Amino acid sequence: MANNAAYITVTDDSFNKEVLESPLPVLVDFWAAWCGPCRVIAPVIEELAAEYEGRVKVAKMDVDNNPHTPMQYGVRSIPTLLFFDDGQVTDQMVGAVPKRQLAKRMDALAPNVT
Amino acid sequence: METNGNMSSPWDGIDFSRVEHQKLVIIGSGPAGYTAALYAARAGIHPVVITGLEPGGQLTTTTDVENYPGYPDGVMGPAMMEDFKRQAVRFGADARWGMVTAVDLSRRPFRLLVDEEEPLTADSVIVATGASAKYLGLDNEKRLLGRGVSACATCDGAFFRDVEIAVVGGGDTAMEEALFLTRFASRVHLIHRRNAFRASRIMQQRVFDNDRIEIIWDTIVTDVLGKDEVRGVLLEHTSTGQTRELPVGGFFIAIGHQPNTELFNGWLDMDALGYIVTQHSSTTTNIEGIFACGDAQDHVYRQAVTAAGTGCMAAIDAERWLAAQEAVATAVVA
């Protein structure tokens, strides 16, 4: 089940190294403490992080403390989920989505491992 | 109705003899859903609430609620909905995060599918699915959603610090969004297709008194401009037909709501706008055992307090109906 070790917290400073240069595909969850829908999907993100550990890296970025990266990627609404592979955005989702839909996108991101 | 020949159905492969069964499932978690849950729980029915993707409903995207009786100093929408939930759960309501993605109301018990994979059967169902923000229906509006186009100022307003933005609409929601956005935006252009608002007096007055809001009357938005993010909107004057570009970095839509009732198309009687038709001042629908409350069946009042009121009615209607069913079953056995 979900545990604290399954996902990482990423900042403007660590974004390059942790996301863009990651050997694994990365799901970045842009969120903020004041955002209701973000709180709703947080447990789902954490569960998925545990389920996909070793296949997809899951990173959470607090947009209040890290204004630069959301700006750079045109994030104007949260929760926004951006999928990165080899430093490129390959997919995005805005707003709360059911776990199953998210899992399908994660599968697409990590197709070779089951 | 339930068999579609060779088409794949969401119910394929489900063994309904082993599926979780409940007396009452409530779909939706706004004031209507949680009030129904509160009353049903207190009646000992142990309702299950499937909250939808926006637990707490529309009020969770508002700020101050000033017109819900019992909160003389106002209350924040999300906090109020947390109170609603706690009160229902305290008496045994089981609130689960998920979205009902299919229903089969052709048989009893009724069949529901949560998140496309978890089946559930129910003796009775209360539909409290509420309403969602309407969009203008422009291609570029959809493309730029989350990239400067938004229907929720409280969710997204903070991304528009010191930016000029536009709001379209003329009701209370539009006033609230415009006023809220003045906290961040350098200027708010409020666009309305007529020359008067339909919003309540008090909300209109607050808008007129705010010098950061500029009102653009008799104007419609015909396009949203921008490649990767919103750069402006295209405006058209309704009587002269004159068009012009308004450069803005954000575009907020507050033109009303539509009921979340697509799931029940073909099952429940609805009016031309998609609102579920209920019968004789009750929450009874055309299908016995299915009850509807809140904004999903009300396009006239659409208030938190009226939604809560009809939620209470739905629980009482469902409880009486369930009791009558049990009485019949007992009589048959005897």
Task: Describe the overall structure.
The complex is a heterodimer of chains A (114) and B (334). With 114 residues, chain A is of the alpha/beta class. Helix content of chain A is 33%, strand content 24%. Chain A has four helices and five strands. Chain A has helices at 15-20, 36-51, 68-72, 99-109, and strands at residues 8-9, 26-31, 57-62, 80-85, 88-94. The longest helix of chain A is centred in the middle third of the chain and has 16 residues, at 36-51. Chain B is α/β, with parallel strands linked by helices and 334 residues long. Helix content of chain B is 25%, strand content 25%. Chain B has seven helices and 19 strands. Chain B has helices at residues 31-42, 77-90, 139-143, 153-156, 172-181, 201-208, 304-333; strands at residues 21-27, 48-50, 64-65, 75-76, 94-96, 100-104, 110-114, 118-127, 131-133, 149-150, 164-168, 187-191, 213-216, 219-225, 232-237, 243-246, 250-253, 257-259, 290-292. In chain B, strands 1, 2, 5, 6, 7, 8 and 19 form a seven-stranded mixed beta sheet that branches. In chain B, helix 1 packs parallel to helix 7. The radius of gyration of chain B is 22 Å and the shape is elongated. The model of chain B is unreliable at 1-5 (pLDDT under 50). Classes of the chains: A alpha/beta (114), B alpha/beta (334). Chain A binds chain B through residues 32, 34-37, 40, 63-64, 70, 74-78, 80, 92, 94-100, and chain B through 53-56, 60-61, 78, 97-99, 101, 115-117, 145-148, 150, 152, 155-156, 158-160, 228-230, 250.
